[in-house]
């Protein structure tokens, strides 16, 4: 898993980090709504106002998971984890701007770098899994995450969940999304080419459910969709040690 995750992290260099927030909102129609609903799902699962420690895997960029959830639940603390230093630097700046840095532990690295005895009340994995090539590394990442959650703890998992070539109409609509925001024909094709070469999403919602089951999670509940993107919540099995 470390090699696959390291390969994924290298894509998020300073150039990509600098444009991340703007480009993410174009690539994902409903970017803010997805994060808002993720926060609402976690609050519903954990209970309003209850103290909690949330693991945010792939927190780099705008740190939007923490910004949104931290505003909803002032008693929650966070551990922000990301292997890309440029992306993590952006998140730190955003958390400082929103007054959330004192509620957040910052870790540059991978899930395996966290102590196994760490037990979080919940976790998020948003925009990460489709950057991990191959099913086995995806399983290993989810298992490592499950091992650091309390039994019954919820995980919000969001990302692309279809093989791109399997949904040509969605792919064409994605191209139109870029055109809608001013990209020319050549730029649209370049963006699609980068996406197709740089990610390996699970091939269906059923495939996501299987990966979660194999890692020790209950069946997921899906709550958001936008073209290839989907978001779900699943609890770590209570019986898993």
Layout of secondary structure:
Elements: H1 2-10, H2 14-18, H3 20-27, H4 31-46, E1 52-57, H5 64-72, E2 76-82, H6 85-97, E3 104-108, E4 122-126, H7 135-146, E5 154-160, H8 168-180, H9 185-198, H10 205-215, E6 221-226, E7 229-235
Parallel strand pairs: 1-2, 1-4, 2-3, 4-5
Antiparallel strand pairs: 5-7, 6-7
- Total helical segments: 10
CATH top level?
Alpha Beta
- Number of domains as seen in the coordinates: 1
CATH architecture designation: 3-Layer(aba) Sandwich
Number of strands: 7
Spatial extent as radius of gyration = 17 Å
β-strand percent reads: 15-25%
Poorly predicted ranges:
none
Q: How helix-rich are the residues, as a percent range? A: 40-55%
- Cα distance spanning the termini: 21 Å
Main pleated sheet: 7 strands, mixed
What is the CATH topology descriptor? Rossmann fold
Q: What is the arithmetic mean of pLDDT?
A: 90
Structural class: alpha/beta
The rough form would be described as: globular
Give the helices and strands as they follow along the chain: HHHHEHEHEEHEHHHEE
User: Order of strands side by side in the largest beta sheet?
Assistant: 3-2-1-4-5-7-6
- What's the name of the CATH homologous superfamily? Vaccinia Virus protein VP39
């Amino acid at each position: 898993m470390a090699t696959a995750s390291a390969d994924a992290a290298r894509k998020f260099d300073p150039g990509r980090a600098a444009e991340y927030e703007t480009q993410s909102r174009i690539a994902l129609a409903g970017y803010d709504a997805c994060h808002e609903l993720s926060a609402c799902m976690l609050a519903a699962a954990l209970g309003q106002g209850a103290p909690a420690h949330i693991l945010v895997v792939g927190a780099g960029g705008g740190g939007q998971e923490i910004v949104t959830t931290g505003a909803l639940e002032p008693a929650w603390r966070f551990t922000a984890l990301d292997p890309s230093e440029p992306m993590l630097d952006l998140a730190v700046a955003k958390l400082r701007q929103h007054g959330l840095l004192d509620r957040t532990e910052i870790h540059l690295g991978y899930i395996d770098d966290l102590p196994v005895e760490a037990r979080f009340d919940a976790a998020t994995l948003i925009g990460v899994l489709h950057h991990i090539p191959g099913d086995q590394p995806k399983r290993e990442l989810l298992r490592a995450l499950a091992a650091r959650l309390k039994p019954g703890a919820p995980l919000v998992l969001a990302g692309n969940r279809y093989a791109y070539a399997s949904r040509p109409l969605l792919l064409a609509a994605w191209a139109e999304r870029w055109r809608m925001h001013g990209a020319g024909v050549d730029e649209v094709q370049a963006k699609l080419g980068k996406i197709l070469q740089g990610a390996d999403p699970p091939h269906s919602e059923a495939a996501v459910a299987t990966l979660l089951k194999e890692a020790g999670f209950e069946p997921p509940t899906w709550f958001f969709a936008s073209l290839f993107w989907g978001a779900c919540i699943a609890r770590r099995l209570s019986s898993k040690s």
